[in-house]
Structure formats: structure tokens, C-alpha cells
Write a structure and sequence with these properties.
2 copies of one chain form a homodimer. By secondary structure, the first copy, chain A, is α/β, with parallel strands linked by helices. Chain A is built from 19 helices and 15 strands.
Chain lengths: 454, 454
């Protein structure tokens, strides 16, 4: 048996899969926070190019991947599907484990799947410059990479505290020619306002979003747009290339998963792997689909399904989703990509319909799973990815207890080579599990009281 | 045309290629520094296991890769051969460029090819523990990875200044369960002697080698051996899997290189790619084989061919090689892996015989080539690898000037994701080219005066 199952470049998917065409229940529409009415394409036009807005609302089942995007995907795609025999042996359970290795992209994660697509659609819409925000820098580095290869300018507002403490992803952006600046900056009204109140502000994702959106909409040339790395429908759409490849690969191996697992922050890598398999589930296939989140930011496992802002500064439309409230501040776990208060509306709807099962895992369990994986399979996972691996361990344990054989497919969404300080903290015993008091969630949810209910 | 040419795992080479069987002139033997006589296997037995010593002196053309090594190679091998069309376009020259992507291994470089083999041979010889030294940490992290997967203990003496300033590779070693300590340490006589003279010693590769060798030979259980990441024949042998794969791949693409290029510090990644092609050259094929080194450490381009110690503390046998003298201290360029005073005896002999052409490139040229590559092909090269890319640029420029078409094959020996501070220094204009005064080389070579001549 071979360890890695490859597709040839000719076997790469030529179309993304749009799950909106197959969902048993449609999602409620996003609402304008002022009017309470559904937002239309025109409301979004100053922020995103129209071709991406069309994808955002499309119900076509399949959307062709443009040739130029395919050409760039070929730099790292198709990614290998790998049989984790050594991890299986360590777990000593009746499971077969396959992981889809999305860490082989130059920025080291699944994020370029949508970054390249978004840069392409902006480019063909005549846009010259893209702005975005980034926390720890995984999204910012992916967009910098994409803009570099497509010849667009890229400006990334990076939360100042991360800008100072986590130089590696900032340096990646710089190497790809992007302009990465610390937020709050003095280049936007939003930034200047914060700085005038607190010159030493460490910044926040909310502030960085405000700056990035302001920089896009206020460019008098009209040649700048904003880009988001998760949550939205078109972002999840672009990620489905992961699951379409994985399905072709696991079938090549003569197999099919009983359980499909991804970690979920905003939902994009989880959706990327699982949507192609959820299509089969909707059509009657008996599989389990698990979205793994941190117990410290338990959006789906403890939050209500409600209308909420996608961002803390209330600039987005109200989105129908599982949420902990847009002011919820998760504890500072190292998996920055999972510290998001909401969940993609598409994923939220699928959870609501019982098609996706959310499970939450505590910090120490996820790092243990990550280290066990690194020491058996060799690849060091990103702390986000380790949440998916904790779910694999969980499922394997259960399979063993029940004496049932299971085939597990998991998304190895990124490597941890520039997150090694997190492993340092774990291995030197500095990490703990965060017990999140119920009061804190109740308090954060107060913000939602006056919003419409989906 | 596809961008990446893959081999299946079934098509992986099952044997390493030993160029000693085909060299037109044999190498002079290594000498015992005390007696001036050739060293025998028994001299090396306290340091290396006998099975590796046998490989060191073997003249068999092919040596079978053990099954357990093949199993672990499959974690990242066969590595892709990639057509660098976007870099070609940027260079605007009549060249086709293929790169062999060795950066896909979990530690991010070609080093695990020999680390896994060495850990395996130590294990079957009954050894429980391997010691080594590391500078910036590329070799130490590869050996930590290999020992982890083969169930051996690994102790890495890391030069103290790097230990403090370059935490990422140290953390990689830790994640794979290795014991990485700052050198000089108080755990060896060599370390304690240095510390008693200078408690604040920043350490050096020479001191770290002394500590690692002492820790191996002084273990009363006899269950510890020492491991070296380059220079020696058996190390180069294990790396030949790179070129054997690349040859099968480029032939699959219906092509064959006119020029084969690798960067060379101790010589292992260069040998790894080129030896399979040098075999064809010895048999009459008309190809050019270029070893790229830094002008700041111009071992082959400005050093004599002489007997010299492999290390600065004079613990190794005298090796016949191009050398700048074992006390030569190259300027602190960021390509730590190329700051070695000597060159592998096998590579040295091939240079001497006119089969390999050494070329030296200055610091700024190499970083420019690295950034150009990152911005066209997407992958950020290690600073060492950028020396090979500078040679590609050089060959392409020449091809354009002469109006000749060339097919170039280059080893992408490692990625630069944990070397990004070097790019920071380059992009912010802090780097210069080092002009190495002739006097400095003359001075360093004085040490060789009393050694036998090869």
C-alpha cells in the first residue's frame, strides 16, 4: 500500500462545489443593520468586486475554476492525501486515518485556495490593490502570496501586538512584496482615532478590520477592494477544492470515510474538506461530519444561532450564525485562527440541520494530539490543525471502546513551523485548560438581544 | 504540460548510488593526524557504528536502501520535480528550469535523507543514543526528526549564540523530543574547560563538535555514537536518492539537463542531486555540473586542495579536500550551512578532475535570486538554496548572451520559512557583499603548512 495518494494535475477539479444548491434548508439572508432588510449586491459593491458578490449569492451547484487560478493552484496542488499509519499504530484503535495535507502550499496552510481566487477576481474586475486585516498572520501571508503572483498590490493591517511579537509571518508578507503595517496605524481615520485615545494601543482584530475596510472604500481612485479570509460563502466555495480532491483520492485508494473532520474557526478549512462529502450525506450516505472547535471559544457548542455582526466593530451586515456575540473575547490560546466569535453562515445552517456535529476540545488535549502526531507522522501541525487531530483521537478512542472499525478523513490544514513558540509553551508546562464561566458567555450574548431573530 | 513531475512510491529508487565505483581517479585516503598513516575502520569505531564505517569505505556501485528507511522516506519522498515556468519568464532567457523540491520534508530540507539512514544504521547496530552538533539548527532538527521516528535518543549541542537568537529550529528539535542544549555546556570536559576560561562564551561549531564527540565516546555504556550531517562519503551516499529520483523524473518529462546545479557548503545536497548525473558525464555525456558557494567562504574557488582537519578542534582525521584552513572564520552571512572551511573529499576530487565546476556568488546576488524566485514561483528558498538559484540566474544570463537554449536542473534544497530574519535584513538594506581580502586566506592557510600533501 502506498502512503501518499496523489492526483495528477490533469485530475485536478475544474469546478468548485457550491453547497447552497443542495442544502435541505436555505439560509436566512444577511440583514442591513440599519434597516433590518436583506442586504443586496449594491450594499456590498464598495467593499467587494461584483464577480465575488455574485458568487456570494449564487445557487449554481458548480462554478468553474478559471484557468489562471488553476495555473497558480498547480504550484502546490493537487495536495497529497496521506495514510497516517504511524499515528494509527500509536492510537492502537481499529481506525484507518487519512489526512489531506494542505500545509504544502508556500504560505503553509489552506488559505491560498481562496486568496488566489479572490486576487484573480479582483484583478479581472480592474482592481489594482487589496486590503485586509490579519491577526497572527496566516491569512495576511496567504493574501500577500496570492497578490504577488497575480501582480496586485496588497496592504495588510496586522494587529500591533502580533506585528511586534510574531515577526515571521510579517516577514513572509514582506518577502512576497506586500505592505504589512501595524494596526492601529496613522493612515486611517479609524486608526488615528484609536491612537489619539491610546497611543500605546496593542490593536485588535476589530480595529484592523476597520482600518482595512476604510482603506478600501475611501480610495478615491475606486481601484481598491477589501478581502476576507473566512466566514463568507464565496470564501468557503473556493476551499471546496480540498474536499473534491480528497474524495477523488480516497476513492482511488478504494476507500470512503465514515468520519470527516476539520477544525473550525471561521469555518473555511472545515467547509473546504467536508462540503463534497456533505453532498453525499444529504443524498443519503451514512457518514459523520465533525467540526472541532476550542472549548475556550465554543461558538457552535455553546453559542446560540442568531443574527450577529461578523466583526467587533459592527461594519458587516448581520449574519445568521452560531455566535458568542461580537464582543466576546476568547482567552489567548495559541490557535489564533480559531479565536473567532462566530461561525460561517453556511456551516451554521448545516449544524442547525443536524448534518454537521460540532465538538469542542480543551487546549491541552489539542497540543497532546499535535505532539503525538508530530512524533509519529513527522509533520508538526499548526495549533489550529491540532484541534482536528484531537477529534481524531476522540473518534479513535470511541471506536476502540465500541469495537467498531472506522475510516477517518481529517484536514491537515497547516503546519506549525512558524508557530513553534506555542509548542514551547506547551512542552515547558506553561499552558492550562481554560474553564470558561457560563456568566461570561451570558454577558457576551446580551449584545444580541435587540437584533432580529433568524 | 504539467508543472510538477511526480514519481509514485513504487518508482522510488531502492538503492543509493556510490560514485566511488565510477570515479576516474580514486581519492587519497584520510590520514591519522598523529601517525600520518591512513586511518582504518578501528580508528573510527568509537565514533561511528561499523555498518556506516563500511559504507564510508565501500566501492560498491549500488547500496540497497533498507526497507525501514524506505518506509520513512515515504513520509515526504518521492519529492516533486517542478518546472519553474514563472521564474523562466522573469529571467527572459532561452532556458528551461526544473527544480527538485527537497523542502517538502517535515524539517524543511534535504538533511533527513541521511539523518534517517544514519539513525537506522545506528539502531540496527544496537546504539540507543546519537549526539551531534548544530549551528543554525538545520542538521540538528533533521537528526531530531529521524531519531524520533526510529525511537532513538538524540542529543544536539547547539552553538549558544544560535540557541539564543534562533529559537525556531531549537523548538522543532524539542517538539520531536530531542534534547537540545546550548554549547558550551557544563556536561562535557570540553564545555567546562571553555566555560572556566570564559563563562560568557557564545560558542562555536568547533566547540559544539568537541562536546558532541566527547559525549559519544565517553559514554561508559558504549551505546552512544556521533553523527555528522555532511562531508563524509556515507552522508553523500544517502543523499544520492535526490538525483536518482530527479533523473527518473526529468526523463519522464522527456527531457535531460544541460546544466546541473546545487549549492555547496559541506557538499551533501550538491552531491545528492549531481552524482547520478556525474555518472553519465563520466560515461561521456556532455553536461555541465556547477557547485555554487558564497564568495565569503570560497572553499573551492580560492582554497587549495590539501590535507586538513574536517573540524576546527582537530578531532577528525586529515581529509583530502579543498579547504580554507580549519581556522578560517567566514563572515557571518545568513547561509549558515555554507559557512564551512572545507569541502567533501568526494566533491573535492571531482572538482580536481574537472567534472565539477565551482562558482562563487556574492551575498546580494544570492538574496536577489531568492526574492525573485519567491515572487515568481511562490516558494521562499533557504539562504543556502539561493546560492544555487544565483547560479541559475548566471547560467540563464549567459545562455541569453550566447543565444543558446539550455535545460537547467537545480536542487531546491530547503525552504526559508524559519530563516526569514535573513530576508528582513536583505529587504531593509542591511546586507552588503563581503570583500574577502587575500591576506586573510593566506593567513588561514598557514595552518596547513606542516600537513602531508595529497
Amino acid at each position: 500500500m502506498t502512503k501518499k495518494i496523489f492526483l495528477t494535475e490533469d485530475e485536478m477539479p475544474r469546478k468548485w462545489y457550491n453547497i447552497a444548491a443542495d442544502m435541505p434548508n436555505p439560509m436566512p439572508p444577511p440583514l442591513h443593520p440599519g434597516t433590518g432588510q436583506p442586504v443586496g449586491p449594491d450594499d456590498l459593491a464598495p467593499i467587494f468586486p461584483m464577480n465575488l458578490i455574485e458568487q456570494e449569492v449564487s445557487t449554481e451547484r458548480e462554478i468553474a475554476i478559471p484557468d489562471e487560478v488553476l495555473q497558480i493552484y498547480r504550484i502546490w496542488r493537487p495536495t497529497p492525501l496521506v495514510r497516517a499509519e504511524r499515528f494509527e499504530k500509536l492510537l492502537d484503535a481499529p481506525v484507518k486515518i487519512y489526512f489531506k495535507n494542505e500545509s504544502v502550499s508556500p504560505p503553509g496552510s489552506h488559505k491560498p485556495n481562496t486568496a488566489v481566487a479572490q486576487a484573480y477576481y479582483n484583478k479581472v474586475a480592474g482592481i489594482k490593490r487589496i486590503t485586509t486585516e490579519t491577526g497572527a498572520g496566516q491569512w495576511g501571508s496567504a493574501l500577500a502570496f496570492a497578490c504577488c503572483l497575480l501582480g496586485l498590490e496588497c496592504k495588510v493591517y496586522m494587529v500591533k501586538i502580533s506585528f511586534q511579537q510574531k515577526p515571521y509571518r510579517r516577514l513572509m508578507m514582506m518577502t512576497w512584496g506586500a505592505n504589512c503595517i501595524a494596526s492601529p496605524s496613522d493612515e486611517t481615520q479609524a486608526g488615528r482615532t484609536i491612537l489619539s485615545r491610546n497611543p500605546d494601543s496593542p490593536g485588535s482584530l476589530g480595529i484592523a478590520i476597520s482600518e482595512a475596510v476604510e482603506a478600501a472604500v475611501s480610495d478615491p481612485s475606486g481601484e481598491t477592494r477589501y478581502s476576507l479570509g473566512s466566514v463568507l460563502n464565496h470564501v468557503l466555495l473556493h476551499q471546496t477544492v480540498i474536499g473534491l480532491e480528497a474524495k477523488a483520492q480516497i476513492e482511488k485508494a478504494g476507500d470512503y470515510p465514515d468520519v470527516v473532520i476539520g477544525c473550525a474557526g471561521g469555518g473555511s478549512n472545515f467547509a473546504g474538506l467536508s462540503f463534497a462529502f456533505l453532498r453525499d450525506k444529504i443524498n443519503g450516505k451514512d457518514i459523520q461530519v465533525i467540526a472541532a472547535e476550542p472549548t475556550s471559544c465554543p461558538t457552535m457548542t455553546r453559542g446560540p444561532y442568531a443574527y450577529d455582526f461578523g466583526d467587533t466593530v459592527q461594519m458587516t451586515p448581520l449574519l445568521p450564525m452560531y455566535t458568542l456575540g461580537h464582543n466576546f473575547m476568547p482567552p489567548p490560546i495559541h490557535a489564533g485562527g480559531l479565536r473567532y466569535h462566530g461561525m460561517a453562515p453556511l456551516v451554521s445552517q448545516l449544524v442547525r440541520d443536524g448534518l454537521v456535529e460540532p465538538r469542542a476540545y480543551p487546549n491541552l488535549d489539542t497540543f497532546k494530539a499535535g505532539v503525538d502526531f508530530a512524533r509519529s507522522e513527522g509533520h508538526i501541525p499548526a495549533p489550529e490543525t491540532s484541534h482536528a487531530l484531537a477529534a481524531v483521537v476522540d473518534v479513535a478512542r470511541q471506536a476502540k471502546a465500541e469495537g467498531k472499525e472506522k475510516t477517518i478523513l481529517v484536514n491537515f490544514s497547516g503546519h506549525g513551523l512558524v508557530d513553534l513558540t506555542a509548542y514551547d509553551a506547551y512542552l515547558s508546562g506553561q499552558l492550562t485548560n481554560y474553564a470558561l464561566p457560563e456568566e461570561e458567555i451570558v454577558k457576551a450574548l446580551k449584545d444580541l438581544e435587540n437584533f432580529p431573530k433568524p
